[in-house]
Amino acid sequence: MNKRKHADLSVDFLGFKCENPFFLSSSPVAATYEMCSKFLEAGGGGVVFKTIGTYIPDECSPRFDHVRKEGQPFLGFKNMEQISDHPYKENLYYLKKLKEDYPTKCLIVSIMGSNEEDWTRLAKDVTEAGADIIECNFSCPQMTQENMGSDVGASVDLIDAFTKATLKGTNIPVMLKMTPNIEKMEVPATAAIKAGGHAIAAINTIKAITHIDLDLMTALPVVNGKSSISGYSGAAAKPIALRFIANMKQDDYLKDIPISGMGGIETWEDCAEFISLGCKNLQFTTSVMQYGYRIVEDMISGLSIWMEEKGYKSIDDFCGKALANIVPADNLERDFKVYPKIDYDKCVSCGRCYISCFDGAHQAITWDVENRKVEIDEDKCVGCQLCLHVCPVANCITPGKVVFKPKDQFGLGSEAKYVEARSGDRNITVGQYDE
Amino acid sequence: MSNNVKQDAKQNYLCEEVPPFTIATAMEEASRCLLCLDAPCSQDCPAGTNPGDFIRAIRFRNFKGAAEIIRTNNVLGGICARVCPYEVLCEKGCSRTGIDKPIQIGRLQRFATDYEKASGFKPLKKVEATKEKIAMIGSGPASLTCAAELAQKGYKVTIFEEKAKAGGVLSYGVVPARLPQYIVDEEVALIKDLGVEIVLNTKIGKDKTIKDLKAEGYKAFFIGAGIQAPKILDIPGTDLDGVTNAVEYLGSAKPSNGDIEPGSKVVVIGGGDVAMDCATTARLLGSEKVMILYRRTREEAPAHKIEMNYVESLGVHFHYGFTPAEIVGTNGKVTGIKGTGFRDGSTIHLECDKVVFAIGQMPDASVKDISDVSISPKNTIIADEETDCRTDIPYIFAGGDVVSGGKTVVQAVAVGKRAADSIDTYISKEAK
Ligand SMILES: Cc1cc2nc3c(=O)[nH]c(=O)nc-3n(C[C@H](O)[C@H](O)[C@H](O)COP(=O)(O)O)c2cc1C
Ligand code: SF4
Ligand code: SF4
Ligand code: SF4
Fold it and tell me: Which CATH architecture has domain A11-325?
């Protein structure tokens, strides 16, 4: 029996009508014609071709490492790669063939020069080869040459010069890829847009050291006894990427600038999260390195089923919808607390909530030794919900009763009492946890 | 038994034996999956349910997409998740076995279909019926699948069932501990939602004939009538009060939610899954001693080992290597059974008040009344269910136990899919 179509995932990105927003990001996963073609056949909306430069870098071996916690591998991924190691002409040939064979798929090409002439020439050549959009790589943290990589992304002057140089060589839209190795991405992003750029791509990898080899006393991966600080990506990068994107989308100058989001995208839910913060295009690498192009199948299926259920007719219907609810910390309401509620039918009496509450919160859970039973002491509980996060049983601890803080919270007056309702009762929305 | 004890016993009988996964435990299990390149698990599912893909969907938190993969490939996915002998099918070649033990594919399949139900998601939508009328005879898994597939292709499908409930062996055989009735009812309802009409209490060949149906405009027929006649051994004492057979025993227990007199000391004869289901039924309904008498060894028993382990865990006694020789009784009632060694001269005498024959079923002679298609000497319909399910009458197709003499539910699903394609080809190419 055939699967039916659930929702229209098409989206306009910089004037290109993309079949869906799922793109390979610029990296070894999008380095040849054959690779890009396999991804496009699997359903991808387009690719960002591996960064093309004017020279072939000399790569080290080995060049990867990954972080695990307990049994889970690939929480984060470290790489020490630079730009494309294929000959210039070969890359241009790949681009041409991709555009010829997949005219309806969007071809974004990442480029990186070391001086203005380079940027102009690269822009001109990839435009002629058939690129629909150019992505300027201002952000690779492991370049060995000066004036290249993430140093560029941290310099407003270089961004200005290189963006302008790129625009000189082309008439197609230009997107600037930002480094997260700074505090405020709004600053370089603004410079890039002011220089004439059309969109922002974020984030590139985060400078990191994943592990130290305690025998060799160097970092991983070990390149003949030595290692370097280099780019970190994958699931662990997602929270960082999301915050940079929210900051830009909430910036007065940048708020309407299209953003292509990336950093740790693996599932359709990750995709929906980036879209909810205003991204109209999504890219991923690490998840493909771990699992292959086929992951796009579940992005398409999962996102479209969810949209159908929510009644969203298009990506635009919910794009940026979460931004209004992400507010500065001083705007949060702070006059109530939400107690955790323990479902004793589910509780397996492991005592983990007790341990975490005692050692990491407010000593608000009691442990009945005889009966192996935990109980919440509402006088001491502050509603931080650490216990909820550590409980290993699905839906055993959930957000429960809401109480309002006393007016005279820090004093010792007669009003120092929590109340369950306050005049003009408000409805307090709490998060839902499903596992 | 006091009323209370009886109540508890019935509760046990109706309760599903294996607990469901939660999202967290399903994710744990799905994370164990190696997401293999060639997914041996998918290659080993007779119905093409495609575990490799649905486990991957779960792994990437696309739970509804997982349900969609299952339903579009196997409309009885929730049933198969519970009754399939995974250890010899999808889990058999699982690559994870090279590290520790296979992925629990059946439980993940059940998780996905349970999630589908709990969330109200409907992967399949009714297709407007603009094509010919097709009739299914019998409502077991082969017919149900064939009906659903044809309805999705736009045919007007009607199922005729002689009994009061649809589902065949699913409703009158498999114990609730493995397959609760509500699961069967829900999947039957899902098939009705696709536009399939189900006419109950109507036996084709008796209440109505294929000739009548042709006159009503039906253009093709699928016979998936199953097999119901119990095999009984020709030994003294089979006419005693307390001697019964699996078809009757299971077939009265399940539809009545366990409201039968299970017997207090029960001997089940046989070593297949049906014998295990009889022993389970007796034990869960409160029989104090349940014994299985099987003529060969444990290794030779055709029952799936997981089922045997489960039955053993219920405290059922197994007596291997004996053939029943005589059922003894007083005042017309069973009091015991005697057996002799199958491979030696030893003897056994078991006291009991109930004897259940579970040594197999056979098609009964009434299969001849349904149609004029050729029948084998064993009363099975002659058709090649591995290819096109055609009989020697062009517009009549057949499959499932009525052809094979008895296979698994998932094999019947596979046959139902093949039959639907074959009927579609016949209607579009030949019938016009
Ligand atoms: C091995 C590897 C090579 C990469 N090479 C490039 C590159 O050539 N150009 C670029 O702009 N980004 C490069 N990246 C960064 C990715 O495109 C992406 O921005 C980053 O990995 C975050 O996304 P992810 O978590 O989905 O991997 C590379 C990443 C990896 C892991
Ligand atoms: S909410 Fe915080 S303070 Fe209250 S019981 Fe849980 S861990 Fe302790
Ligand atoms: S952590 Fe959860 S399961 Fe463990 S004792 Fe606390 S409430 Fe019970
Ligand atoms: S064979 Fe086993 S490990 Fe491999 S994909 Fe199937 S379930 Fe996963």
Answer: Alpha-Beta Barrel (3.20)
Which residue out of B59, B91, B103 has the highest number of ligand 4 atoms within 8 Å of its CB and is therefore the one to mutate?
Answer: B103
The predicted-structure confidence for B307-343, as pLDDT tens digits, reads as follows: 999 999 999 999 999 999 999 999 999 999 999 999 8
Cβ distance of B72 and A3 shorter than 8 Å: yes
- The answer to whether domain B133-227+363-431 and domain B230-360 are alike in fold is yes
Alpha-carbon gap, residue B125 to A384, rounded angstroms: 45
Q: B133-227+363-431 belongs to which CATH class?
A: alpha beta
- What residue in B sits closest to A435 (Cα-Cα)? B24
Each domain of chain B, given as residue ranges in start order, spans 18-119, 133-227+363-431, 230-360
- Quick check: A348 contacting B, CB < 8 Å? no
Instruction: Compare CB distances from B65 to A301, A434, A435 and report the shortest one's residue.
Output: A301
Question: Which of B32, B95, B105, B107 to mutate to test ligand 4, by most ligand atoms within 8 A of the CB atom?
Answer: B95
Substitution target in A238, A288, A298 with the highest count of B β-carbons within 10 Å is A298
- What CATH number belongs to A333-420? 3.30.70.20
Domain residues of chain A, as ranges?
11-325, 333-420
Provide CATH code, domain B18-119. 1.10.1060.10
A69 touches chain B (CB under 8 A): no
ipTM score of the complex? Answer: 0.88
Task: Give me the CATH topology for the region B230-360.
Answer: FAD/NAD(P)-binding domain (3.50.50)
- Residues A347-399 pLDDT 10s: 999 999 999 999 999 999 999 999 999 999 999 999 999 999 999 988 999 99
